[in-house]
Amino acid sequence: YSRDTEGSWFRSLFVHKVDPRKDAHSNLLSKKETSNLYKIQFHNVKPECLDAYNSLTEEVLPKLHLDADYPCDLVGNWNTWYGEQDQAVHLWRFSGGYPALMDCMNKLKQNKEYLDFRKERSRMLLSRRNQLLLEFSFWNEPLPRQGPNI
């Protein structure tokens, strides 16, 4: 091998030009043709209140799902049997992304029935947390299923 070849081969090990990322990784992977945003809620319920909690949510949450004034769909809700015990999980889809989420939250602040529900629900909870999830291109669309399911 000639010296120039060795020099270029050796140089190729160390000299690489990498283009800087121009967008957030999540934006690069997210679906472009849709703008759904998902919210997953985790509610840790007092063990003695789990049945009352489930009855209360079965009464109120489907009303929000069916009300066309709210840009959200209840994709699923369930209780966990393994891992966190006495936990309820709710998965919501907001058609229209962050603006739809904010619209829905602002409307819920004015909804007396929902505010009463939250007040009653708060007495049954040990803790709660939410996560917002972008719809990625490699996800399938989550579809509601008839239960009971494991």
UniProtKB/TrEMBL annotation:
Recorded hits in SUPFAM superfamilies, A to Z, give: Dimeric alpha+beta barrel
Alphabetical GO CC annotations of the entry are: mitochondrion
A Gene Ontology biological process in which this protein takes part is:
sensory perception of pain
The record, for PANTHER family, names: NIPSNAP-RELATED, PROTEIN NIPSNAP HOMOLOG 1
Protein's name in the database: Protein NipSnap 1
Q: State the organism named in the record.
A: Phaethon lepturus
